[in-house]
């Protein structure tokens, strides 16, 4: 039997509180998981996840803390109606994403990595226009340091529970 | 500025799914945190939490994996109307609880430790009688191994986000 897993970065409480102030109204996944940056999702058996956990430990050791900068609210339209806090791509984040996707089982990403924190989704076209129109000029500038990422699994009700934390540069 | 922190054990997905099947109907905290065993809650500043995190690391190293056994549904009535999965006290769990409460800042517990996973709360007396009456004979026997605990913090909306995982007996 396989379970669904996710590898994510949780931003600071300040950013999570900001994102939740939007998600409460615009994101039906609001109650299922705190605000996050997804690095990978995959399915795995119990045996596979033990191996993945070991691999993530060694990946974490080989990376250093890096800065994560949020500059603006953006949208994936016309691909889909997801509104998000756009994270500036940095070498530290890109390299972590790349190594995780190369070394952890599961499908390779089909698209370029656009790091983001979702604040609205499953909106109709009209809702999307209204919400994005009112949020796109918001001043959401913020910078912080990322020093860890988390491995989560999904419960039957669709919510996510944390299995393990990996600290960058730590043994 | 202080934040609210919690130290908890998340049981296996199987137990979390079971607990959520009850919590969905009977626990208004259903969406705020996955099913858990609380070891301690406390308030701390950023500086204090770094120290607490180091202390929790060394506590985790000094403890070994232990078995956690659930035998029945129970209730804290008449103290309050909380219905829970009762966890059999074991030396491993008691010692971990005791060391965390001795070494981590915050108030010492006023009552004996009754390890439990809440499945219903904030029920009226009538609701409590109905629900507990129908659940108290449920066959919820289950045993599993605990090999980790987690440090969480509370967001503005009342939900909890995981800060760190501590694996028992690991460096």
TrEMBL record, chains A, B:
Segments carrying motif HXTX 2: 116-119
Family: Belongs to the 2H phosphoesterase superfamily. YjcG family.
Record-listed E.C. numbers: 3.1.-.-
Motif (HXTX 1): 36-39
Residues forming the catalytic site: 36, 116
A Pfam family matched in the record: 2_5_RNA_ligase2
GO molecular function, one term: ligase activity
Protein name: Putative phosphoesterase J2S17_000567
Organism: Cytobacillus purgationiresistens
InterPro entries xref list: 2H_phosphoesterase_YjcG-like, Cyclic_Pdiesterase, YjcG
Domain of life: Bacteria
Keywords: Hydrolase, Ligase
């Amino acid at each position: 039997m396989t379970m669904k897993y996710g590898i994510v970065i949780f931003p600071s409480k300040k950013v999570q509180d900001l994102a939740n102030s939007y998600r409460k109204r615009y994101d039906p996944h609001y109650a299922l998981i705190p605000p996050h940056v997804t690095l990978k999702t995959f399915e795995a058996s119990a045996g596979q996840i033990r191996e993945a956990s070991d691999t993530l430990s060694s990946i974490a050791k080989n990376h250093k803390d890096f800065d994560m900068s949020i500059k603006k609210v953006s949208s994936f339209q016309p691909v889909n109606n997801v509104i998000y806090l756009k994270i500036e791509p940095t070498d530290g984040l890109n390299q972590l994403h790349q190594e995780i996707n190369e070394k952890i089982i599961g499908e390779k990403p089909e698209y370029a990595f656009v790091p983001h924190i979702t604040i609205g989704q499953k909106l109709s076209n009209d809702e999307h226009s209204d919400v994005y129109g009112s949020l796109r000029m918001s001043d959401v500038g913020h910078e912080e340091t990322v020093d860890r990422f988390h491995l989560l699994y999904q419960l039957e009700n669709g919510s996510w529970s944390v299995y393990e934390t990996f600290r960058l540069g730590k043994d």
